[in-house]
Amino acid sequence: MKNKSPDSAKVRPVSAEKLHPRNPHRGRYDFRQLIAASPELAVFVSINPYGDESIDFADPAAVRALNRALLIQYYDIQGWDIPAHYLCPPIPGRADYLHYLADLLAEGGVVPSGVRVLDIGTGANCIYPLVGQRTFGWQFVGSDIEPAALANAQRILDANPDLSGAIELRLQRSPQSIFNGVVKPGEIFDLTLCNPPFHASLAEANLGTGRKWKNLGKGASRALNFGGQGAELWCRGGEEAFVCRMIAESAQVNCLWHSSLISKSSSLPGVYRALNNAGVQEVRTIEMAQGQKKSRFVAWTFYEASVRRDWCVKGALGK
Q1: Extended beta strands in 219-292, E state
Q2: How large is the C-alpha radius of gyration of the chain?
Q3: Positions of the region Disordered (predicted)?
Q4: How far apart (Å, rounded) are the C-alpha atoms in residues 2 and 302?
Q5: Residue 35 and residue 47: Cα distance in Å, rounded?
Q6: 216 pLDDT exceeds 50?
Q7: Among candidates 271, 279, 212, which has minimal Cα distance to 252?
Q8: Cross-strand partners of 53
Q9: What confidence score (pLDDT) does residue 108 get?
Q10: Residue 254 and residue 73: Cα distance in Å, rounded?
């Protein structure tokens, strides 16, 4: 049974100035090793103005090729690719989210195995299940509202037959629902994670794309190096509304820790209010960093500390 919560959520901020200590992407990219793993990357590598080997991060094809090489070298993922214009995730940052989630389960001890995770909006790239399964051996369910995105994710899984029993894909048929229609009756998860659409409208998403291209020194463009389209980038009300819906529905899901990335710090007050209204036991805000880029995720649980310890110690994980 879930325990009653205090009147207000216990918010515990945690900060980090570098990638997680376990993250294998903490150092510079070793392009010689990456090219050895994926020779097609070679055509995109050149010497930058600082005298280092690099790629043009404003080139979507180069970014996809880099991701493909990283997935081969570090995670033994074969045949990874995404259709044009779909979200191409920066793998070091995505791996960081998973490592900090693992710390939530470890609670200062050993990262557990036998974990079941629900990835909300897994997308065509399926990056969290791929990296999470290879890193920790966890079991994943990935949901999405786009059949085409799931079809591409399934193609990646088909290219890696050993993952067939570890990652399951499910279609969310209702764009207004998060967990409803995806989580089966009586189903238990240890973690949920989400990279929500962070813009409130298509116009706002286009403005954001323009700002990123300007920061890359490339002027205006209709494409973006890391891609993204439709529901990947925007929904009515933006990330705050999406995460608030997620919080409201999460109260009905049997899960130890729920979580979501939060792109905008301005979304946090509304998210915290929704968490208080939902009656959670504890909230963790984990600040992350990759170079100059700052990001964060918010995690919440409906269980008090003693129940969380029993959940892990007594083997509730993955059941």
Answers
A1: 254-261, 282-290
A2: 19
A3: 1-25
A4: 6
A5: 15
A6: no
A7: 279
A8: 47
A9: 67
A10: 36
- Please name the amino acid found at residue 104: L
Angle (nearest 5°) at CA 264 between 91 and 11: 95
Which residues sit opposite 288 in a β-bridge? 295
**End-to-end CA, the chain:** 15
CA 10 – CA 13 distance, rounded (Å)? 10
Of 110, 290, 300, 283, nearest in space to 193 by CA? 300
Which of the following CATH numbers is that of domain 10-27+87-313: 3.40.50.11710, 3.40.140.10, 3.30.428.10, 3.40.50.150? 3.40.50.150
3-state secondary structure 134-151: HHHCCEEEEEECCHHHHH
Least Cα distance to 295 among 97, 95, 82 occurs for 97
Q: State both tokens at 30.
A: 């070793």
Q: ∠ CA(115), CA(92), CA(178), 5° rounding?
A: 50
Instruction: Give the C-alpha separation, 285 to 169, whole Å.
Output: 28
pLDDT digits (tens, 9 = 90+) for 259-272: 999 988 999 999 99
Q: Which region among 80-89, 168-177, 218-227 has the lowest average model confidence (pLDDT)?
A: 218-227
Q: Name the DSSP class of 41.
A: G
Q: Does the pLDDT of residue 84 top 80, yes or no?
A: yes
Yes or no: say if 142 and 119 are a contact pair by the CB < 8 Å rule. Answer: yes
| Confidence band for 250, pLDDT divided at 50, 70 and 90 | very high
Structure-token match 């504890």, residue found: 282
Structure token pair of residue 312: 């892990």
Alpha carbon distance 241, 248 (integer Å) = 11
CA–CA distance, 239 with 160 (Å, rounded to integer): 32
